[in-house]
Every structure is written in structure tokens, then in C-alpha cells.
């Protein structure tokens, strides 16, 4: 079974941050998305299926001043996750960048309870105190509500 080396670059990144995967030619695009996802630091509410991929063929020595947004066209976008690698990257060799990927814009706020808070008890105390002050209109006169407790649950 043959393999293909695919160099990837995140949209908006410099070419020096390109990385590659060696994938089996009978894998599909979703397998490639999972491999890219495992390599990058994506927001916790992003899934591999959410990654946007464009098929490109750029030399890695290309200037970082090249505006990729003006080069990427809709017809270059890889939309079908079941497409086989061998069909999309037929004859791809060398170290040229073959994939530009992008993670969709999201809010990281939904990740707060997963990544930042270790003790729900402390967090619940903060929320309860804030809610009590808000409901009793104990603001400082400027609409600000303060919490005087400790934030020991954060590292």
C-alpha cells in the first residue's frame, strides 16, 4: 500500500510553521482532518469535521508576505470528507505545501469549565455570590459587581 507525504499550513501562519503527515493513499479526507486536528491546538468546541481545507501547491520557500486570502479560491476547497487521499493528491511529491487549513471562528467561553476550573465547588460559590449581588442590586454604583473571594481553583 502506498503512502503520501502531505505538508500542511494553517491559514495566516508563516511557512516556517508547516508540518507534514505521511498518510496511506487509501485514507480519506476525514482521516486527514483528524490527523491535522491532533497536531494543532484547537478550541475545545471545534471538532475535526469543522476544519476547512484547501488543496494548494506552494513551495515552502514562498515569502510569508504572500496574501493567501487572495490566492485561495472556493474551487480549491476540499468539501467531501469521504474523498480518498490518492484521488485528491494524485502525483503529489516533494515538500510543497499541499493543504492550507483553517479552524472556524468560535468563542472559547464555552471551554471555561473544562480547561480552567478544577473545583466546581469554588466556581459555584463565585457564581452564587455574583448572582446574589446582582439580584439584590449590590453594584458599586457603576453597574460593576465584584467578588472578594479567592480564585484558588485557577492555575
What does this structure look like?
InterPro entries: Crinkler_N. This is Crinkler effector protein N-terminal domain-containing protein. This protein has 155 residues and is an alpha+beta fold. It has two domains: 3-108, Roll (Ubiquitin-like (UB roll)); 116-155, no CATH class. 25% of the residues lie in helices and 19% in strands. A five-stranded mixed β-sheet has the order 2-1-5-3-4. The longest helix is centred in the C-terminal third of the chain and has 16 residues, at 120-135.
In terms of topology, how is this protein built?
Blueprint: E1 3-10, E2 19-24, H1 29-39, E3 52-58, H2 68-71, E4 77-78, H3 85-88, E5 97-102, H4 112-115, H5 120-135
Parallel strand pairs: 1-5
Antiparallel strand pairs: 1-2, 3-4, 3-5
Poorly predicted residue ranges: 112-119, 150-155
H-E string? EEHEHEHEHH
Global morphology:
elongated
Task: Tell me the major beta sheet.
Answer: 5 strands, mixed
**Rounded radius of gyration (Å):** 23 Å
CATH hierarchy: architecture of the largest domain: Roll
**Strand order in the sheet with the most strands:** 2-1-5-3-4
Please give the share of residues in helix.
Answer: 25-40%
N-C termini distance: 47 Å
Helix-strand makeup class: alpha+beta
CATH class of the largest domain: Alpha Beta
Q: Could you tell me the strand content as a percent range?
A: 15-25%
What is the average of the pLDDT values?
A: 76
Number of separate helices:
5
Instruction: Assign the CATH topology of the largest domain.
Output: Ubiquitin-like (UB roll)
Q: Please identify which CATH superfamily of the largest domain we are dealing with.
A: Phosphatidylinositol 3-kinase Catalytic Subunit, Chain A, domain 1
Count of extended strands: 5
How many distinct folded domains? 2
Pfam families: Crinkler
Keywords: Secreted
Protein name: Crinkler effector protein N-terminal domain-containing protein
InterPro entries: Crinkler_N
